[in-house]
Amino acid sequence: MNFALFGYPKTGKTTLFNLLTGAKIDVKSYADGKKELNRRTCPIPDFRLDKIWALYPEKNKIPASIDFIDLAGISYGDVKDSSYLNYLRNADALTHVVRGFYDAQISHPKGKISPKDDILSMEEELILADLVSIESRLEKLEKELKRAKTAEGEKEKELLERLHSHLEEGRGIREAPLSPQEDKLLRSFAFLSQKKLLHMINIDEKDIPLIENPEKIYPSDKKGIGVVAFCGKIEMEILELEGEEKADFITEYGLHELSASKFLKASYDLLKVITFFTIGKDEVKAWTIQENTPALKAAGSIHSDIEKGFIRAEVISWEELLQHSSFQAAKEKAAVRLEGKDYPVQNGDVLYFRFAK
Ligand SMILES: Nc1nc2c(ncn2[C@@H]2O[C@H](COP(=O)(O)OP(=O)(O)O)[C@@H](O)[C@H]2O)c(=O)[nH]1
Ligand SMILES: [Mg+2]
Question: What pLDDT shows up at residue 34?
């Protein structure tokens, strides 16, 4: 999975990138307008993986991971022409970092701190960028169709025109009803307003009482959009602390959960992904897949040969596995089930795929 952190200038993108990835990029020394782009691949902490691995300490533990990129700020109105458009298009999900903190030293380009206005403005800009792509495709397509009419071309034109009207009403493609075929046809466009979007509001210290209720800052019931609040400043201070002092500070500020953990929960929810585990010869590994993925496809996410030669999946939930000393011991107690290719893999399943080589 890859996430792009983006937003207007000086909202706390690099601060959040540090909090999510443990990178220590200096946020003070960057001059205005520096086009830094930071990348990190981050293991996803998972206590279930830790517990399974504890049964096999001689093996390697391989967590699932997320790729993050942190883009420099994009000025108001510039998204559609941004040199970062391709980074946004290539992301599996967009993380919009929104300024909610007050600081007289750090000017806001609009002179007013309003997370809600900035969120609405960014949602509009994503829609606008998609309108521009659709218009340019339609222009080419109309020329092609004039030269030679094809049924496929007509279908694409009809779909793009429909989406154009939808976008013009200010609604993202996430909210457009699409058939599976239409969805497939649109994939290569990588529309921004079709991507899952998580607004991460970097709130002010004085607003910490709102941190668990970000919907009070921005009520969003739009499909595929999530909102999380965090406080970059306090969390940066927490990073400097250790042990008891750290725990005390967290409680003192009324932070129940840090941004990294909130981010992961909200993203898994939004992307509708789950985790399954495998115990291989040398490694205990976590994998991320879409909810309701059939066993056959889950096998394919590991290796196409396993999908091709798929026979059966041996399945046990991680909790049940822990009641035994190993997968083998669980099998001997008949606690491991055999499932076929259509079995929808469940969050926390431990799987062993039988396949013909
Ligand atoms: N007061 C305050 N300053 C912050 C907060 N988060 C980030 N900053 C400061 O805002 C400036 C820009 O932060 P940075 O993370 O580089 O933002 P970016 O330009 O969006 O990547 C830096 O000086 C940060 O220290 C916050 O929650 N409160
Ligand atoms: Mg930055």
Answer: 58
Q: Residue 262: CB within 6 Å of ligand 1?
A: no
Q: Which atom of ligand 1 is nearest to the CA of 17?
A: 15
Instruction: Write the residue with the smallest CA distance to atom 23 of ligand 1.
Output: 28
Topology of domain 2-45+65-115+194-271 in CATH is Rossmann fold (3.40.50)
Spatial neighbors of 255 by CB under 8 A, at least 6 apart, are 208, 211, 231, 234, 235, 238
Which is nearest to 253 in space by CA: 209, 212, 215?
Answer: 209
**Which residue's CA is the closest to the ligand 1 atom numbered 19?**
10
Name the closest ligand to CA 16: 1
Residue 250: predicted pLDDT: 86
In the CATH scheme, what architecture does the domain 127-192 have? Answer: Orthogonal Bundle (1.10)
Closest ligand 1 atom to residue 232 Cα is 27
32, 34, 37, 42: CA torsion to nearest 10: -40
Number of the ligand 1 atom closest to the C-alpha atom of 102 = 1
| pLDDT score recorded for residue 29 | 62
The answer to whether the CB of 101 is under 6 A from ligand 1 is yes
Beta-bridged to residue 189, according to DSSP, are none
Q: What pLDDT does 265 receive?
A: 95
**What are the average pLDDT values for consecutive 10-residue runs of the chain, which has 357 residues?**
96 96 82 72 96 98 97 94 95 98 93 96 98 97 95 96 97 95 95 98 94 91 94 92 87 88 96 97 97 98 97 98 97 97 98 96
Q: Report the pLDDT value the prediction gives residue 36, as an integer from 0 to 100.
A: 66
- CATH tag, 273-355: 3.10.20.30
Q: Is the Cβ–Cβ distance between 255 and 211 less than 8 Å?
A: yes
Q: How far is the CA of 208 from the centre of ligand 2 (A)?
A: 23
